[in-house]
Amino acid sequence: MDTTLSIRIDKDLESLLNQVAKRTGRPKSELVREALRRQLSIESFQQVRNRILPFAESQGLLTDEDVWREIS
C-alpha cells in the first residue's frame, strides 16, 4: 500500500523541481521520491560510519586514503 506525504517547499525549490521535471520528462513525484531515497541512504551511511569510526581510529584508519590502502 502506498502512502501519501504532503510537504511544503519554497518557490525557489519548486522552480528547480519544475525545471528538472520538464527537462527530464520525469514526474515531480518520482524526482522527490528518488531524492528522498538518496538522502535517507546518506543518513544511514553516516550513522553507521559514526558508530564504527572509533574502532577504525583505534586501528590507525584516520582517513579514506588509509582505508583504501588497507583494502587495495
If you had to describe this structure to a student in words, what would you say it looks like?
- The chain is mostly helical and 72 residues long.
- The chain has one domain (11-71).
- Helix content is 74%, strand content 0%.
- The protein contains three helices and no strands.
- The model has no long low-confidence stretch (mean pLDDT 94).
What is the mean pLDDT? 94
Task: Spell out the helices and strands N to C.
Answer: HHH
Tally of structural domains: 1
Runs in which pLDDT lies below 50 for 5 or more consecutive residues are none
Question: What is the tally of helical segments?
Answer: 3
Give the assembly state of these chains. Answer: single chain
Rounded Rg = 19 Å
Shape: elongated
Please describe the biggest sheet, giving its number of strands, its sense, and whether it closes into a barrel: none
Roughly what percent helix?
over 70%
Strand content: under 5%
